[in-house]
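Task: complex structure prediction.
Instruction: return structure tokens for all chains below.
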Amino acid sequence: MERVGFIGLGTMGAAMAGHVAEAGYPLTVWNRTPGRAASLVAMGAKEAESPSALAAASDVMVVCVSDSPDVEQVLFGPAGAAEGVREGCLVVDCSTIAPATARSAAERLAGRGVGFVDAPVSGGSEGAQKATLTIFCGGDPAHVARARPVLATMGKTITHVGPVGAGQAVKAVNQVILAGTYLGVAEGIVLALKAGLDVGQVVEALGGGAAQSWVLANRGGRMIDNEYPLGFKVALHLKDLGIALDMAGDLGADLPVTALCAEIERELLVGGHAAEDMSAVARVIRGRSGLPD
Amino acid sequence: MERVGFIGLGTMGAAMAGHVAEAGYPLTVWNRTPGRAASLVAMGAKEAESPSALAAASDVMVVCVSDSPDVEQVLFGPAGAAEGVREGCLVVDCSTIAPATARSAAERLAGRGVGFVDAPVSGGSEGAQKATLTIFCGGDPAHVARARPVLATMGKTITHVGPVGAGQAVKAVNQVILAGTYLGVAEGIVLALKAGLDVGQVVEALGGGAAQSWVLANRGGRMIDNEYPLGFKVALHLKDLGIALDMAGDLGADLPVTALCAEIERELLVGGHAAEDMSAVARVIRGRSGLPD
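Output:
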């Protein structure tokens, strides 16, 4: 069995690394902020002193951090994984970052004989905990094939969608679709509340028709209650929409609903709601419509 | 078995009336434009000379026309159903109209001892043909109970959502949710096309996660192909968004994505695409993003 290293033990990463350990892989972990490794160490994982030390002890390294600069830091910063990694190893980046950053990291690692797969995930903290994540892989087929058994411990659907960067592009598409879907559901629920309807019944009735979506079925209730436990943080979705809008700018795509959703999410950040679930877009629509907070 | 009258034999109505006839109800039909009744007459239905004559021959009348003025015309215009209807009959309006128009029609009919149920449908022409429509009923419980067996021949899910007008309000909520969902899917597909991804594969991969929706699964392909067979006409969805935005204005709700979708659909009307399926919102996003028509 390959020795796995796991960098980044946030809400997503800690759950994902747990599934790798449960599957029996020899596991080494590292997290920027100390004190996140205890439960994994209790499962038999080793904690490394640095990404470099983790890389030296691993055949396949999984990275799950927040943003492009974080990935660059843990791979290429001081005591970064690139310092300790050996030829023939594979880096699997489950973070959501810009496709261009993924391509650049892959090129730098390829120069050392190290493979790279971008493998951003979708499904939020529930998906991470239940190992039901959807994972979009970009990379050489041989690298993706090597990453697959490790990813299979964390996710339900693992799709190889193209060369390095393609996984990130698909993730951006996912976040764009979510932007419109969440806003549509939020506006529908606010209209139903204002009209005095039995909104829970409405959500159930509409779930049987063309308005059916995962968002309506799984996030409608939060919007009705105006309570937004995680889930997936507003701040992270806004970060991902930034990636999508940058891509759109580079490629010449016009995404008006995506831009509108980013504007609404910035309003949430300003209001101190960055750490709520992204279904909190309904909070803004509710507020603008005079519903009590 | 109650004698059923069916007013309005458009794409939706003709299919729905066919299911009523198949279920064995004695059926009388009428359509403003002649020549739409032939296939129903071949199934044993009678064709009435006017809504008034149809009303005189019916216990339960189903109306399925385009808009609020059409409903007012067939019910209360010259030779309208109100002229021929007898006390104790029931009018079931499957058109999508303003909740206020439904309440007004119900009041006028109640004065003659005639019941009224608003029962707008969702599911488009496919749903009408396959008798899998989702139907939202507003009205007195006894009236809805009486309408239910007739509606059950046309639809799969029939929900009593409140008093008269509530069915229309729920339909408006449905159209608002669709607005956001269609635009999100359209923008996602355009971004995927611009990024050079295998978009069919992307749609399949994303369908397993939080971006999952009926729209993505059933309309993504049309957006990829840039061909928009019906389905549900842009012009009708735009009419329904007008109802929703009027409601929002009356109730003090702010629906920015709904307004954006209406703007995009008006652009389709101007461009001569009113009769395409509403998935044609992707045509506008594609065009603005420089993709070939």
